[in-house]
Amino acid sequence: MDIFVVEGGKRLEGTITVGGAKNAAVAIIPAAILSGDICRIENLPDISDVSVISQILIQLGAKVTQISKSVIEIDSRNVNCTQVSQELAKNMRASYYMLGALLGRFNRAKVPMPGGCYFGVRPIDQHLKGFEALGAKTGLRDGVISLTTDKGLKGARISLDVVSVGATINLMLGAVRAEGLTIIERAAREPHIVDLANFLNSMGADVRGAGTDVIKIRGVKKLHGATYSIIPDQIEAGTYMIAAAATGGDVTINNIIPKHMESISRKLVEMGVEIYEYDDAIRVTRSRPLKACNVTTMPHPGFPTDMQPQMAVIMSIANGVSSITEGVWENRFQYVEQLCRLGVKATVQGRVATFEGVEKLVGNHVRATDLRGGAAMVIAALISDGETSIRDIYHIERGYERLIDKLVRVGACIDRRTVPDDYE
Ligand code: UD1
Fold first, then answer.
1. Position 114 pLDDT exceeds 90
2. Atom of ligand 1 nearest to the CA of 188
């Protein structure tokens, strides 16, 4: 197996450039098949989730050409299959965006239940409720979700019962070519929803209101190919901001949209971190001790749930008692037990985790329990005395491009090693 080995205690200093947003990329790549034409997608992150979603398109009959590390061309003119293979779907959550994309283009789709990080039950009832409102028949047999419509999709008013990023995206994909007007109420407002709307509009769609909680989509008969550059990754940038602050470093993070970082910056400033914003960069530096703080994760523009494990690490060395209340997922604290192996003092009760700041963390063997939990292990290892090994790094590599490379350039000491499976 492959592991990361981190020698802790190094201060990070220098410049890191973030890549394109993972969660935008995994929605925009499926969306490209709605055009039935050629799309060029730029600023893609070089991560395994992007290669899996691209392979799904290839399996369906699209031609995907890698133009450079961050640019692909998708020719979806000859897509002729509307069923995603089990093998590919199980690797990632976003494989379910093929439901909206295939339904929108072909009036039918079959997609196995998706994989991805486990945060407790991850229902898709809101997706199905929305597809049904658009006129699709839904079914679930042998773990495969099926959608069909004989009469074609018709615009509808859909009021979501929970704010769901996935359902909002899937319904946007389903509605862009439906007849008439679709209104999605209680829509999610994440930056990647706006990015998807911009991409759909660049292909000739008529989507308005993305970024607010009411999205209006007037269906169009046909879309066309487009060239589109994906927004920077808010969570990748936030992860490096916390790594910089935790190590008492001084790091400038390039290729970001400072507005997307506001909820994270605000909390770090409250903890005593210094933050300087530029047009498309942010400098994070810390010379003072960290102060405890409390965070509640919420849908955008609240504090992102995908930043809570990283936040837990910096809280664990702050003066005093900090807390995280998880407002999105029912069970997102599996990583805490791993942090405790490094000396973190934490208790978890239901959706609340409490961290009592300690002087120092000490290296040990830990594992990545999920993607962002894995990022938290890397940051914790950076501030631990001695060596830490991190296993199950495939979680991390699903969503962070060239993580080692980027951290080593700013002074971290990290190695990727292949070791026997019984390595201890
Ligand atoms: C996306 C992100 C994930 C992030 C999450 C919240 C991607 C690929 N993943 O996940 O990293 O943590 O947003 O920002 O973009 N829910 C229902 N019924 C549904 C759908 C969701 O009850 O049909 C609930 C979920 O259980 C959860 C909440 O709604 O409690 C939010 O889920 P959702 O926003 O849909 O998350 P994802 O889109 O899966």
1. no
2. 34
For ligand 1, whether the C-beta of 99 sits within 6 Å is no
Domain boundaries, the chain: 2-19+232-418, 22-224
95 lines ligand 1 (CB under 6 A): no
Tokens of 219: 């269906």
Q: Is 39 annotated as catalytic?
A: no
- Give the Cα-Cα-Cα angle 399, 53, 97 (nearest 5 degrees): 100
Domains 2-19+232-418 and 22-224 share a fold: yes
Ligand 1 binding pocket includes 93 (Cβ within 6 Å): yes
pLDDT, position 421: 85
CA distance between the termini of the chain: 12
Render pLDDT for 288-339 as a digit per residue (tens, 0 to 9).
999 999 999 999 999 999 999 999 999 999 999 999 999 999 889 999 999 9
pLDDT given at position 122: 81
Is the pLDDT assigned to residue 120 strictly greater than 80? no
Concatenated DSSP letters of 86-125: HHHHTT-GGGGHHHHHHHHHHSEEEEEPP----SS----H
pLDDT digit string, tens, across residues 211-234: 999 999 999 999 999 999 999 999
- Place 91 in a pLDDT band, splitting at 50, 70 and 90: confident
| Per-residue pLDDT, 81 | 96
The CATH architecture assigned to 22-224 reads Alpha-beta prism (3.65)
- 239 C-alpha to ligand 1 centroid (Å): 20
Tokens linked to 244:
């910089």
Cβ atoms 324, 353 nearer than 8 A? yes
Joined together, the tokens standing for residue 384 give: 């631990």
Tokens of 3: 């592991």
162, 173, 303: residue to mutate for ligand 1 pocket, most atoms within 8 A of CB: 162
Residue 268 has pLDDT above 80, yes or no: yes
What is the rounded distance in angstroms from the CA atom of residue 330 to the CA atom of residue 195? Answer: 27
- The encoded tokens of residue 245 equal 């602050």
Find the helix or strand (DSSP H, E) in which 52 lies: helix 48-59
User: Would you say domain 2-19+232-418 falls under CATH 3.65.10.10?
Assistant: yes
